[in-house]
Inverse folding.
């Protein structure tokens, strides 16, 4: 298992390098620059700015410089917000995005798993059909629709919760409730469908029949034998779920005006703030790779059939 | 008792009795028995027809601005049945154009992903060995990318033109397609008819196009119907962030983002586009599910 982990990490390294390179060159080959302001800068000032940030060097040297910085966790200065380093910008946005994402994942699991299991136990009955209809709705109604509608109903009409923003820059239960619910809806739908189909299959399988045949009470059949096998696909869904949450958080942060990384990323990309864009891509790519690895390892621990050579 | 059939009729009957039903006929019968799928096809067909031909017969145009009719609610007056937007343009016709755009993006981008995915997957699966390993490792690497960020960078970097939206989204969606096709191809490669073709000296390229691709069609068709709604969602997501289709052209995501901004004073601007989008996505998903049950009856 250690060898497997090492091998995966060995692959992760070039993967990250490719991701960084693609993002870096794509950004730099683009027309436009961070110094395209309303007022045209004089050529001298422009040249000075370019040399200050090292943009006058050949591209591959800039790339090597960037990698060198990255190795020492130096993400460079922001080109737009002159008084902040990229690390500071990421540092202020990441906790917000992570809190929302983790809370949404937790909520989605806590709601989606019981829904899916219940539907599987009552297969082809009215509760099953209604749960699957709700799940279908959750997949078809995108967060860019549910977000505004939730904020309209609970924020404007009922006035129970704030419509947008944080409470004086602090995350509170009230300010995060709507964003988290919005973000989790699609995941609840996907998780409940996933759990239902795997549970249906498991309940039909031989080892469950054996457990029943040897006279185990039904609750033990379910908790000791069926549950573990039924939840396995959920573990390998962790990676894609994380990617989905990251994507969704961009919308949710825009709808609810939250100062998270997703919103930061879009504004930075529009302003050609290269270092911030790069940092977000590197951070999220690393996160996704790491989570995928963790999910695969967890899968191996839970499923006795999987052996790592 | 005499048989009242002519020899011609008899021949016809015999032929009908001998002619079996192909797997595709079976799938078709199963699909048409699925009420949700058939209903979705009807609804989607109607919507598509409206989106394509509706604007020709509607008295308003998508970019005509009526300065005296800004933010009107749905009314029969001047035939603004879905109201007007903040610039005083007719929402109904804009909705038709938006739907047309979203459907077009869905179809073209899915086409792009289909093309790349099928060729990539079939090649990797058919050749196998080292080539397969390298090609699938590339897919694994791409899976790890936070793709939406790359699409956003692309849109920002190269301006927001339509073709780029099509290609960028298509380039994102082909990975799963490639995996499905590869898996199918590997199982097909061991089949006798492929061996026979190989023994007869057919080139690899034509084995892939003549034997492999037609036989992986089933799962691919199912996945295509599920990719289209995913693509429509991605496009609307980009438009929502202001990175997709540009004014005065519009798409469902673009209309929804305007609606979300104005919903407190003009809820119809959100309700109609959001409903249209949900109905469209529902239809595609139901058709996809129906097709899966029809083509691959194992799950039932």
């Amino acid at each position: 298992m250690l060898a497997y982990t090492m091998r995966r990490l060995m692959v992760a390294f070039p993967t990250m390098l490719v991701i960084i390179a693609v993002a870096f060159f794509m950004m730099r080959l683009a027309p436009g620059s961070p110094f395209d302001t309303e007022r045209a800068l004089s050529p001298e000032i422009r040249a000075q700015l370019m040399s200050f940030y090292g943009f006058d060097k050949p591209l591959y040297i800039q790339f090597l410089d960037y990698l060198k910085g990255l190795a020492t966790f130096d993400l460079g200065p922001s080109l737009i917000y002159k008084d902040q380093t990229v690390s500071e910008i990421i540092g202020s946005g990441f906790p917000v995005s992570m809190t929302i994402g983790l809370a949404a994942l937790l909520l989605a699991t806590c709601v989606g798993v019981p829904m899916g299991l219940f539907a599987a136990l009552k297969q082809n009955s009215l509760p099953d059909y209604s749960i699957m209809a709700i799940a279908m709705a959750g997949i078809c109604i995108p967060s860019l629709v549910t977000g505004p509608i939730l904020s309209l109903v609970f924020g404007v009409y009922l006035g129970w919760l704030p419509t947008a923003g944080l409470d004086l820059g602090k995350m509170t239960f009230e300010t995060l409730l709507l964003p988290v619910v919005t973000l989790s809806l699609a995941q609840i739908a996907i998780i409940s469908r996933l759990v239902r189909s795997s549970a249906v299959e498991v309940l039909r399988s031989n080892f469950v029949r054996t457990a029943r045949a040897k006279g185990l009470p039904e609750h033990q059949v379910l908790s000791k034998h069926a549950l573990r096998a039924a939840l396995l696909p959920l573990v390998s869904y962790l990676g894609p779920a994380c990617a989905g949450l990251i994507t969704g958080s961009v919308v949710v942060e825009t709808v609810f005006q939250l100062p998270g990384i997703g919103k930061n990323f879009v504004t930075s990309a529009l302003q050609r703030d290269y270092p911030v864009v790069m940092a977000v891509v590197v951070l999220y790519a690393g996160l996704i790779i790491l989570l995928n690895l963790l999910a695969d390892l967890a899968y191996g621990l839970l499923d006795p059939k999987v052996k790592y050579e | 008792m005499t048989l009242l059939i002519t020899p011609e009729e008899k021949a016809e009957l015999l032929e009908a009795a001998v002619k079996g039903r192909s797997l595709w006929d079976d799938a078709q019968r199963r699909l048409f028995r699925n009420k949700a799928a058939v209903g979705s096809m009807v609804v989607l067909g109607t919507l598509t027809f409206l989106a394509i031909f509706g604007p020709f017969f509607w008295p308003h145009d998508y970019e005509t601005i009526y300065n005296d009719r800004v933010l009107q609610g749905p009314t029969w007056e001047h035939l603004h049945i879905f109201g007007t937007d903040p610039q005083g343009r007719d929402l109904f016709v804009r909705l038709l154009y938006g739907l047309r755009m979203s459907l077009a993006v869905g179809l073209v981008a899915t086409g792009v992903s289909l093309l790349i995915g099928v060729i990539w997957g079939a090649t990797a699966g058919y050749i196998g060995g080292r080539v397969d390993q390298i090609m699938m490792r590339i897919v694994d690497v791409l899976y790890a990318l936070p793709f939406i960020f790359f699409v956003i960078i692309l849109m920002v970097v190269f301006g927001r033109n339509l073709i780029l939206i099509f290609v960028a989204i298509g380039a994102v969606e082909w990975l799963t397609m490639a995996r499905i096709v590869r898996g199918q191809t590997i199982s097909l490669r061991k089949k006798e008819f492929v061996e026979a073709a190989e023994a007869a000296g057919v080139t690899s390229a034509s084995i892939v196009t003549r034997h492999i691709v037609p036989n992986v069609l089933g799962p691919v068709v199912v996945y295509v119907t599920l990719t289209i709604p995913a693509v429509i969602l991605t496009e609307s997501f980009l438009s929502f962030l202001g990175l997709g289709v540009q004014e005065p052209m519009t798409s469902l995501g673009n209309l929804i983002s305007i609606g979300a901004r104005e919903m407190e004073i003009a809820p119809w601007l959100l309700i109609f586009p959001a409903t249209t989008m949900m109905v469209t996505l529902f239809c595609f998903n139901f058709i996809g599910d129906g097709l899966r049950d029809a083509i691959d009856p194992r799950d039932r």
